[in-house]
Amino acid sequence: MADLTLAAKLDLSHVAELTSSIRANSGQDLAIDASRVTHLGALALQVLVSAARNWGEAGFDLIISPRSDSFDEALTVFGVSLTDVQSGESA
User: Fold this and answer.
1) What number of H helices and E strands is found in the chain?
2) Which of 20, 58, 71, 88 measures 20 to 30 Å from 33, CA to CA?
3) 61 with 88: CB under 8 angstroms?
4) Is residue 90 part of a domain?
5) Total structural domains in the chain?
6) Which of residues 51 and 90 earns the better pLDDT score?
7) Helix (H) or strand (E) holding 9
8) Residue 89: pLDDT above 70?
9) How far apart are CA 24 and CA 1, in angstroms?
10) What is the C-alpha to C-alpha distance for residues 26 and 13, in angstroms, rounded to an integer?
11) DSSP conformational letter for 82
């Protein structure tokens, strides 16, 4: 399983880097550490939702753990559940 630690601020200026980092880990299970996230923007969230769908369709797990309170609060604000940004049995 590959590991990826998210930046603290995931706004428009970090979306390209986030996308590249996630794509670099395709084809394998991926554990994402969101414990440092203080700001989760809509486009970054969209990247995570898309990644979860792609990983699930490919038969791989994508889990986000640990998560900061700010990350979980952003999911709530956007009306997105944790299962929307994860795939596999751990989701």
Assistant:
1) 3, 5
2) 58
3) yes
4) no
5) 1
6) 51
7) strand 9-10
8) no
9) 13
10) 22
11) G
